């Protein structure tokens, strides 16, 4: 867990913001870090671990057409994952993470490429970060930390803080 998880929960609690997560390559790491903090259930509404493409479609409503056209590691899929998590929860904010943790990857989608989506009342923002070939564990941790940082930023824009 990072101290940022506790910071996010405190900020959301003060501002009355609930969050959801849709995780692929991190396998629920963000949700695990959030739930390590006592009392997190008043902020962390739910998490979706959608490792397979079928899970992304079934649980989050990601379009098979989007997956076919762009692949699972894309801002388009990250957007649909975040929007799906928001629509299928009682959260005010949702974060999605989809990427190539490694080892390996391809020339087109290298190890360490992770796409993020943050959905909320102001729409959905996506970004792609190239963490590099840091190794599977380091990429997953960096991605989870980045998602929490982005959730903190988003919670500040919709809350009273």
Task: Describe the overall structure.
- The chain is an alpha/beta fold and 161 residues long.
- Helices cover 44% and strands 21% of the residues.
- It is built from 6 helices and 5 strands.
- A hairpin with a 2-residue loop joins strand 4 and strand 5 (123-130).
- Helix 1 runs parallel beside helix 6.
Q: How far apart, in Å, are the first and last alpha carbons?
A: 23 Å
Number of helices: 6
The run of helices and strands is HEHEHHHEEEH
Residue-averaged pLDDT: 95
In short:
The protein has helices spanning 3-15, 29-35, 53-60, 64-70, 75-87, 136-158, and strands at 19-23, 44-49, 93-99, 113-120, 123-130.
Secondary-structure map:
Elements: H1 3-15, E1 19-23, H2 29-35, E2 44-49, H3 53-60, H4 64-70, H5 75-87, E3 93-99, E4 113-120, E5 123-130, H6 136-158
Parallel strand pairs: 1-2, 1-3
Antiparallel strand pairs: 3-4, 4-5
Helix pairs in contact: 1-6
Give the key terms.
single chain, alpha/beta, 6 helices, 161 residues
